Every structure is written in C-alpha cells, then in structure tokens.
Amino acid sequence: MSDPAMSDPRDDAVPVRGRRQWDLPKQADPTAPLLEVRDLRTHFKLDRGWVKAVDGVSFNLADGEALGLAGESGCGKTTTALSMVRLLPENGRIRKGSSIKLFGIDLVPKTERQLQRYRWREISIVFQGAMNALNPVIRVRDQIAEPVRVRLGQSETSSRKRALELLDLVGIPSRRSDAYPHELSGGMRQRAIIAMALACDPAIVIGDEPTTALDAMVQAQILQLLEQLRRDLGLSLMLITHDLSVIAETCDRALIMYAGKVAEEGPVSRVFTAARHPYTQKLLGAFPNIRSDRRTLEVIPGSPPDLLNPPPGCRFAPRCQYVMPICSEVVPPEITFDDGVRVACHLYTTASEGAIGSQTTTVEPTAATAAAASPASRASA
Amino acid sequence: MSGHFLGRKLGQAAVTIVAIVLLNFVLFRLMPGSPDRILLRNPNATPEAIAAIRERWGLDKPLFPDQLVDYIAATARFDLGDSFKFRGQTVGDVILDRVGPTVLLVGLGELISVIVGLAIGAYAGWKRGGVVDRVGSSVSLVLYSMPYFVIGMPLIVILAAGLGWFPTSGMQDVGAETGFVGGLVDLARHLALPLLTVSLGLIGQYSILMRSAIIETRSEDYITTARAKGLPDGRVLRRHAFPNALLPMVTLIAINFGYVIAGAITAEIVFSWPGLGTLTITALSARDYPVLQGIFLLVAISVVIANLLADLVYGVLDPRVRV
Q1: Is the ipTM of this complex over 0.85?
Q2: Which fold has domain B97-317?
C-alpha cells in the first residue's frame, strides 16, 4: 500500500475508499467527506433535567486522517465518540438538529436496526482492554470472528481464518489464538481488541483511551501498532485520550473539548505550539514537558461546570484568567483562523483580524454537493 | 477441563459425604430418649428384656469405636437398618419405594422451571420496564413468596374439585387402566397439578434471580462491545449476556436443590403424593428414627452431588475457574 501523505490527508481519499473490500452503503455519496459532524448535542436525562454532556460539537474527519480528542474527564470526549454509532446509555439522547454524516448519510435519524449496518462495518471502536471489553467466557479468536461471520455473512471457516490473520497482524502468535481473555496479558488483550476492531475492515476506528492503564512500554507498543495499522490499512482514526503526548505523536489534528463544547480544534502542529484558547494553554501547561526546565506543573483552578445547568456564556469563563464581562453572558462563536485552527473564545471575536469567519465557513464546497446529493435524492435516482 | 480440577472437586465431595455420615451418627445419638424404649414400647419392661433388646441391636457396645465402626460399615453397604414404623421392611426398601415419585416430581419441576424461569427472567431483565418485565416480575414475586401448599390448594379447588379435570390426590387411580399407555396417561393426570405447583413456585424464584443477573450483566463493558459490533439485539442477549448471567444461577440452582426436596414436602402433602415428603411426615409422627436418618443421609448426599454437578457445569461455562 502506498505511503499515505501525512501532510494533507485528503490526498489519499481515493486509496482509502479504493482499498475497501466491501461496498459502500447503498445511500453513500462517494464524493462526500468521510465524516461530517454538525452541531452534535448529546444529552442525558436525569430526574432533575438534562445533562448537556455534548452541546453543539462540530468536526470533520477525512479519509486516512487521525483526529485526537482531548480534554478533562467528563468533558464529553467519549460521549462524542460513542454518539457516532449511538452507543449511549439508555438515558442518552442525540437531540434534534444534530447531524452525523458518514459518506453523506445522516446517521442521526436512523433507527436502531438501520444503525446496526454502520456499526463495526463502517465505524468500529477499540475499547479499553483494562476494562471488561472482552467477553470472559468466549475465546478471543471467536470474539474476533463473530462480526465477520454475523455481519459479513462469511462461513465459520473463513471467519476463523480471518480472525487468525488479524491476530497475526497485531502480533499475537497463532498458538495463543484459542486463549480466553483472562489468559492474556493487558498488552495482549489490547492487541486482541484492536484486531477485533479491524475485523470488518471499517472506514473509521475510534480508540477510546486504548492505552490507559497499560504500562509505559506497552503503551508505546500499542500506539506504534495503531500508527502502523493506520498507515498500512489507510484507516481513519479518532483517538480519545487525556494524554496530550499521545495526540502529539499519533494524530494529524487535535480537538480540545471543554464541558461538552469544542474549545479549540486544528492541526496538531498549530494547536500544540501556538495554543489560542486559554483552556488549551492551561491544559498544555498542566502537562509535563521533558524539554522544559519547569519543575512544577500548572494547575487549572476550579473544576468543570455542572452540565445540568451550564453557565450561560463561555463554559470556561469561571476558571479563565482572561475572563471579560462578555464571557459570562454570550456563548463565544467558533472562529476559524488562516492556519486552520478553530477557536471558541471571546478573546478572538473582538480582535478578529486573523479570523476568516465563523464556523460555517469551514464547511467547504463539499457540503453543498453533499446536500444536493442527499440520501433521498440519490435513492430516487 | 483438567483432570486436576475434576479430581479436586470429587475429593471435596467425598470429604463432605464422610462428614455428613459422621454427623448423622452423632446427631441421632444426641437425641433425647433412648432407642430401647421406642423399640420395646413398654414402660414396664424388665431389665432383662431391656438388656436382651440392647444386645440384639448392638446398643450394649460402647459408642466408640464399636457402634461407630458398625454404623460406618453398615452405611457403606447401604444397610440403613430396619424401619420402626414399617415393620419387616428395611429403611433402604422404604426409602427406595418413595424416591421414584419424588425424583419424578422434583426433577421434572426443576427442569421445567429452570428452562421457563431463566427464559422469562432473562427476557424481562433485558427489556427492563417492558410488558414482560412488568407483568412477569410482579407475578413472579407473588409466586416466589407463596409456599407450595398455597399455590397448590387453589389449583385443587378449581381444577380438580371444581372442574374435575384432574384427580385431587395420589399418583394413580385404584384399579386404574391397564397397559403401558393407559398407565402413563393416568400418571400424567395425577402428576399435572403437583408438578404445576412445584414449577410455578420455582419459576417465580428463578425468573426473579435471573432478571437481576441479566440486569447486572447488561451494564458490563463486553455488552457494549457486542452492541458496537452491530450484532442483533437477540444475539447480544443469547450469546453474550445470557452465558455470563447464567454463572451465578448455576450455583443458586444447586444450592436450591436441597430446599426443593424439603419444600416439596408441602406440595406432596397437599396432593398426597407418595414421595419422600410424605414419608418424612409419616416417619416424623411415628418417631421412625432409622427412616429419618436414611432420608437425612439421602437428601444430604443429593445436595452434595448437586453441588458437585454445579461445580462441573460452572467449569464448563466459565473458563476462568478451570484451574
């Protein structure tokens, strides 16, 4: 497989779709971007009201691209990712007006049954191996083969063969293939989970803190494996982590979330070197850097707001050192800069010299073509 | 499964049975009253007569070691002595006559209620808050809380006495139809109501326990994984949730086994079912210690065997315990 051009992930848009072993979904628009999320709002119903865990998140994921989602615990990273295939707890709802377009197909209005078509075959998830993500009473090999057999309708023999290939791909020797999860080490389990996520050759792989709870050596091995697989298989990756160094190492773009909203999003090189949002700056400051001689880490005072009743303006305002009167009244609009960084902060709305407009302008002409070729019009064609 | 696991479990079961046999000996020796009085049934017996009786039953020998050794040797030969109440019959014969009906009733009842109860409970827990859950759970709770005779009596009143569909008691009609098929139909008609009673009570219990096991399993990470794989809901339940929820149930069903035999006493009494339950009551009221001792031993051993089976089944179901 050709070396994917990392500078501009769009370049390998064709090879990624071309490598697919299975057809695109019938309603897919081959010219539409891989994944376009607009104004995603995922709320959880409690007796006391709705927890606005994800509240108006927009982002794109291009073919072959790796996007890192970062932020404090409870900022909505995982909820955002799980919303893609609607793997939410029973009280979770994706609210009206949100759209999640995969190949131009909006997944939000799909029924549970219809959505099953997209799970694993298009978007699969690498869960945390430290958790109980593998079924303790089923052989690892069979858990990997299961989606191949059930989802792709392959025979017992060929799905098992595929499972063994995948285990080989992630570096688990075939003699370990009939092991049960508890017989594998943490690193091996995580590899098996990665193998499982690749079973149906998905377009997008979501990594939900795939290296948390692994020791540093194994963590590095797993990240290396993910990176290599992404290059070899041309996967698009969405990596959730609170470890910023992981994003810096493996991702093309970073999306920093705070309290259910996007604080800052853009190329890793820009976000990490010239952070604009005060929260991003604080987050980076709170992270150890081996190249600096700082002895102490910064701490962000306070804690994230209660998402049952979020503050009216900017959600970071109560903890922000640059807070202005407007911050606690008006929700800051998302501003996109020339270097491709998108920031939601009032510091930049007033002095919007460098800004080229609001979030809607980030939607390139492809959005128009995608809208014209909506699923309905294609279906009738 | 490794031979080591099997061997260890068998060893544990053997040790338990030895302990039960010893306890059986001690327990009945500690009971108030001396057996010779019961044997003789004569408060004015002469010392010579008592001595003769004591010698005849081996009671003149010291408890330890002679009596204990005799007892163990006899038990090992399955010689449980003679019944006081059923003169001329050995305890073995008396119990053996009654084992069949109880095994039929309790065994079939367990089988039916495990299948039906686990199915209802699994579905109710999976679709928590659904129709099956709301109706099933309240009915199950009512059934679970009712002793067998409370379930059985309305059945007799309505289905047997009122509508006359089923006989009210016994295991067969006197001078019933001849032939194999006729006999089987007659047995089935008699079995229907006691079986229904035992099954209903157990279904209530098993479905409630299975429901909570499934609800607990449902929030496990591997269920999210299975859903993320885009598997149909039914497959997630059957292949991923059910086998895991079954693990605690296996132990529960085994532990329950002893209670089922004991609990079936009331069901057997209500329907005059000629099983171990009615025998226990008869033996109790007649102070037939040898028979009671025999029943105690039998029930205890079957509980040990049920637990051994549960361990083995557990080992098959859960790879983590096969060590």
Answers
A1: no
A2: MetI-like fold (1.10.3720)
